[in-house]
Amino acid sequence: KEAITVGAVSKNSEWAYFSSGYDYGSYIKPDVAAPGVAIISARASGTSIGNILDDRYTSVSGTSMATPHISGAIALLLDSNPSLTPEEVKYIVEKTSLDLGAPGKDIKYGSGLIDASKFLPPTVNLLLRYRLDFPKIVFRNDPVNLKITAKIPSAVESIHVIVTTPANITY
């Protein structure tokens, strides 16, 4: 649960058949997806992994090719805000990903395709200042639990929340 697990997609954001996930009941893996199909990579002399392109490069597929995309994006995120906790990093990576496949987190794409462009400091700081957690999928007439966490240096004077039902009834 503490680690960020990675799924792989093609350059067209299609699920890679070798990228497996699982629903453990209390959590779903992978957490997020990244490009991992036909990734051009350096190769050591004398090796034959993947589709060899020339003496120095090969084209390889795997979640091991998707993971460096996630690591690099997280490095940029931490460079913009080194005080982030591992929990905050995982939250930001998942909440800013582009949802693919079935709505919500699923066993093929996790929370979706990582989108490092959303890691800009103003976006990151707003995500952490007003953290709103709710299910991505809600069925009609089922109760919805909302959790609001506010990190505000000064005292909070008031919070105003408006909830509108699918029938446009406002509370």
Break the fold down into its secondary structure elements and pairings:
Layout: E1 6-9, E2 22-23, E3 28-29, E4 32-35, E5 39-42, E6 51-52, E7 57-60, H1 63-80, H2 86-95, H3 121-129, E8 130-133, E9 147-150
Parallel strand pairs: 1-4
Antiparallel strand pairs: 2-3, 5-7, 6-7, 8-9
What does this structure look like?
This protein starts with 5 loop residues before the first strand and ends in a 21-residue tail after the last strand. The strands form four sheets. A three-stranded antiparallel sheet has the order 5-7-6, with no helix packed on it. The radius of gyration is 19 Å and the shape is globular. By secondary structure, it is an alpha+beta fold. The protein is built from three helices and nine strands, in the order E-E-E-E-E-E-E-H-H-H-E-E. It has helices at 63-80, 86-95, 121-129; strands spanning 6-9, 22-23, 28-29, 32-35, 39-42, 51-52, 57-60, 130-133, 147-150. Strand 2 (22-23) and strand 3 (28-29) form a beta hairpin. 20% of the residues are buried.
What labels describe this entry?
two-stranded parallel ribbon; alpha+beta; 171 residues; 22% helix; 3 helices; globular; 3-stranded antiparallel beta sheet
Give Rg in angstroms: 19 Å
Helix content estimate: 10-25%
Strand order of the largest sheet: 5-7-6
Distance between the termini: 36 Å
Pattern of helices and strands: EEEEEEEHHHEE
Mean pLDDT: 83
Q: Per the principal axes of the C-alpha atoms, what is the gross shape?
A: globular
Poorly predicted runs: none
